[in-house]
């Protein structure tokens, strides 16, 4: 099956700093989604981005499908950005394969 | 904006008991999924369901598990005889068919088996 690797595994930032999270995957995909898991365990859908670039407020994402990676950018981080960020990929109508996540802590 | 809903948000049960986790997918979606996440681990696929039958299942989805779409709106996951290791967060997801590949996730049910 598809392998998904996320880096870094942990990240600590001061409020206001910027960060880049990376997701590498082992095979071609036509579905890539980024999620934020909040402290209550809920998965919040951030981006559906199998290719190209999208932006939503302070967050943006870029997927380079031909090189099998995706990047999630967080600018001007806030304490509410803390949590685990997951990348998940899939092919066709198949299931999503999740990475192990990046745990982000933003301190005031 | 339409969303996937799940009930209950938290379920506590005794080992050996049966539990049913409920999901209401987005109304025009036809492809449904269950995933689970053991505390501190990554999210894992359990089963997918389309056209009233299982289309794919993982090794985790053994005979203790079953899924059903009992009516036009609900999608359920049943665990017949819960074990301690079934304690996890269970997520339901749905996808529009045809349309895109994006899966929309519910908020999850936290199952605790004592």
Name of the CATH superfamily of chain A = Immunoglobulins
CATH superfamily of chain B: Immunoglobulins
Strand fraction band of chain B? over 45%
Count of discrete domains of chain B: 1
Most extensive chain interface and residues per partner: A-B, 23 and 28 residues
Query: From the coordinates shown, what is the CATH architecture of chain B?
Result: Sandwich
Silhouette of chain B: globular
Query: Average pLDDT across residues of chain A?
Result: 95
From the N-terminal CA to the C-terminal CA of chain B, the straight-line distance is 37 Å
Largest sheet properties of chain B: 7 strands, mixed
**Secondary-structure content class of chain A:** mainly beta
Please estimate the helix content of chain B: under 10%
Which second-level CATH architecture of chain A applies?
Answer: Sandwich
Q: H/E element string of chain B?
A: EEEEEEEEEEE
Distance between the termini of chain A: 40 Å
Rg over alpha carbons of chain A: 13 Å
Overall structural domain count of chain A? 1
In terms of per-residue confidence, which ranges of chain B show pLDDT below 50 for 5 or more consecutive residues?
none
Which topology of chain B does CATH recognise? Immunoglobulin-like
List the helices and strands and how they pair.
The complex is a heterodimer of chains A (about 110) and B (about 110).
Chain A: E1 4-7, E2 10-14, E3 19-25, E4 31-37, E5 43-48, E6 52-56, E7 59-64, E8 69-74, E9 83-90, E10 97-98, E11 102-107
Parallel strand pairs in A: 2-11
Antiparallel strand pairs in A: 1-3, 3-8, 4-5, 4-9, 6-7, 7-8, 9-10, 9-11
Chain B: E1 5-7, E2 10-13, E3 19-24, E4 31-37, E5 44-50, E6 53-57, E7 65-68, E8 75-79, E9 88-95, E10 104-105, E11 109-113
Parallel strand pairs in B: 2-11
Antiparallel strand pairs in B: 1-3, 3-8, 4-5, 4-9, 5-6, 7-8, 9-10, 9-11
């Amino acid at each position: 099956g598809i392998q998904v690797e996320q880096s870094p595994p942990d990240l600590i930032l001061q409020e206001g700093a910027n960060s880049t999270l990376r997701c590498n995957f082992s095979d071609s995909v036509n579905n890539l989604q980024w999620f934020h898991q909040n402290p209550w365990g809920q998965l919040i859908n951030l981006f559906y981005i199998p290719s190209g670039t999208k932006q939503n407020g302070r967050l943006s994402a870029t997927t380079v499908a031909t090189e099998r990676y995706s990047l999630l950018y967080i600018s001007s981080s806030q304490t509410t950005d803390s949590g685990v960020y997951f990348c998940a990929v899939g092919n066709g109508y198949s299931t999503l394969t999740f990475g192990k996540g990046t745990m982000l802590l933003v301190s005031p | 904006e339409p969303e996937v809903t799940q009930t209950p948000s938290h379920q506590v049960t005794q080992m050996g008991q049966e539990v049913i986790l409920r999901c209401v997918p987005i109304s025009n979606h036809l492809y449904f999924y269950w995933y689970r996440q053991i505390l501190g681990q990554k999210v894992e696929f359990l089963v997918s369901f389309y056209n009233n039958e299982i289309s794919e299942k993982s090794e985790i989805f053994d005979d203790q598990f079953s899924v059903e779409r009992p009516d036009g709106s609900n999608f359920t996951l049943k665990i017949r005889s819960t074990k301690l290791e079934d304690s996890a967060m269970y997520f339901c997801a749905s996808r529009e068919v045809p349309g895109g590949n994006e899966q929309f996730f519910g908020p999850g049910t936290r199952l605790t088996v004592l």
